[in-house]
Amino acid sequence: MRHPEWIKVRSTGTHGTKKILRHHGVSTVCEEARCPNQGKCFSKSTATFMILGNRCTRNCSFCAVKSADPLPPDPYEPERVAEAALALGLKYVVITSVTRDDLPDGGALQFARTIRALKNKKSILKTEVLTPDFKGDVEALKTVLDARPDVFNHNVETVPRLYPIVRPQADYITSINVLKTAKKMYPNIKTKSGIMLGLGENETEVLSVMKDIRNAGCDFLTIGQYLQPRRNNLPVVEYLTPEVFEQYRIKGLKMGFTAVASSPLTRSSMDAGEMFGVK
Fold it and tell me: Phi, psi at residue 229, to the nearest 5°?
């Protein structure tokens, strides 16, 4: 399916940001997941850092990040991420990772170390983590939250019916419980989740997932159009119009979310600082 007109993104200059990222030897989910907004974000000197390497232990059919045996965590990575964030002049930093089912804590300690390295460099820096589900391990989740990120994000991604196709190695209830547990552990930490549309879900299913996320205590919600990153990924079933996304945004606000970003090109970490109130 060809992209409709409202999906097309104009490329912008990114050389300066990429040069800083390469100099510090850090990875971004922007590049690894082939995000359509990376030109826009890089031109504003913003990026979402991806820790724990670029090899994922899972093989979600929507994701462009490669599935392979990962390397051991790099003990110097948290400091390099902090140095890169400082060089880019960031006020708000988003940290995500591949899924590391091979590690006893799922990589939770590396998240915590990265948050602390960032805070040590610049105490007023705001941080958001976008984590995997840690297989529902509460202790791993606590390790991340004890480092006090300002926002904890875990994406539900899609409706329960499509999990066997979209996220075959994940579980919908586990993801909802991760969000619920995070909010229960640290009520003052903002929680956030996101879903993709265009994979074959229907409106009733989408609204049900939105309610589940809100009932888990989430403050923020992102809704975006799924785009096929590579030929071997799931094809797009439907392109939803900007008007449909706007209706979901309005309904989300009525459900009680503090903020809802919903548009074809919305992505989980895009303009994350603005959603939190950092300009």
Answer: -75, -35
Supply the pLDDT for residue 259.
96
9 is a domain residue? no
Q: Would you say residue 2 lies in a domain? A: no
- Taking the C-alpha atoms of residue 90 and residue 85, their distance in angstroms, rounded to an integer, is 6
Model confidence band, residue 256 (pLDDT cutoffs 50, 70, 90): very high
Say which residue the tokens 């409706």 belong to: 159
In a domain, 126, yes or no: yes
At 20 the pLDDT is: 81
The DSSP line for 99-156 is --TTSTTTTHHHHHHHHHHHHHH-TT-EEEEE---GGG-HHHHHHHHTT--SEEE---
Domain that holds residue 170: 14-276
CATH number of the domain bearing residue 195: 3.20.20.70
CA 274 vs CA 14, 21, 126, 209, 262: distances in Å: 21, 22, 11, 24, 14
Number of domains in the chain: 1
Q: CB-based burial of residue 43 (10 Å sphere; 0-12 exposed, 13-18 middle, 19+ buried)?
A: middle
How far is CA 31 from each of CA 14, 22, 183, 228, 278, rounded to the nearest angstrom?
12, 12, 30, 15, 24
Residues 229-252 pLDDT 10s: 888 889 999 999 999 999 999 999
Under 8 Å between Cβ of 122 and 87: no
Task: Write the pLDDT tens digit of every residue in 263-272.
Answer: 999 988 888 8
228 burial level (CB within 10 Å; 0-12, 13-18, 19+): middle
Instruction: Judge whether 21 lies within some domain.
Output: yes
Q: What angle do CA 128, 134, 137 make, to 5 degrees?
A: 115
